[in-house]
Prior knowledge:
- By secondary structure, the chain is α/β, with parallel strands linked by helices.
- 43% of the residues lie in helices and 15% in strands.
Amino acid sequence: MVRAIDVVKFALGLYGAPIYVRKEIVHNKHVVDELRAAGAIFIEELDEVPAGARVIFSAHGVSPLVRTQAVERDLKVIDATCPLVTKVHLEAVKFARKNFTIVLIGHKDHDEVIGTLGEAPESTVLVSNVEDVNRLKVKDPERVSFITQTTLSLDETQDIVTRLRERFPKIQGPAAQDICYATENRQLAVKAVVPMCELLLVVGSQNSSNSRRLVEVCVKEGVASHLIDDLSEVRSEWLEGVDKIAVTAGASAPENLVQELIESLRGRGYGELEEVEIKEEDVRFNLPSELNRTVQLHTIARV
């Protein structure tokens, strides 16, 4: 998610405004508003982009149809698709070539799911819960595979995969799980702090799948939780009688919003702070090749 945000900032710095971005680069209101103010123009579909202009694909990925449309309109594309999403797309293509029915575990109408479905639409079926699996019909139970949206709940996904394996014992899945490491780490951290708190505040936007999953993980454990864009949305009644509050954030939420919330809570009397880290997030991805080449050329020119 941070990579995708950096891609837009780098592009604005290199090429200047306007830079068109298909869909929200990440699902976070503050990030989108900041980039819009810097000169990014967010659009829904490519026909809103002038022919020959520069456009960025969001972190959630796009279908092959969208890529074809970009070529037809002679657009200069910078692909900010998360490499983990690209991995899922490649898995879909691989299984489709083997004539498998592909079961995509995910949420209908999410940008990432729409892009993944587009890789092999004739071979892919979408399931969102165990009930969907129970109703699932496939042409050949011996040739079934599964892939997942990268921002799902670990527990919910495991329940769905378990049921899939019960129904289709020969089902094949990815060599490594598809769920994003940042999503997984945050869910594990929430599980670790739930026994120690009475309320969890998640900094993130309502359309952020991974942020919503954090709330769900906490509520499932019996502790109240609220998803907020920033500290202005905190309601006093949530804090009544609450001695211990946990704070976390979605993968695309700016760190300054988290710190501002913590300082606000300090001002409300929550003076002691304990940081809980389950895993260090040290994974780094390179810039998209389209942008990386330009950065290198500018560096050479300056030398």
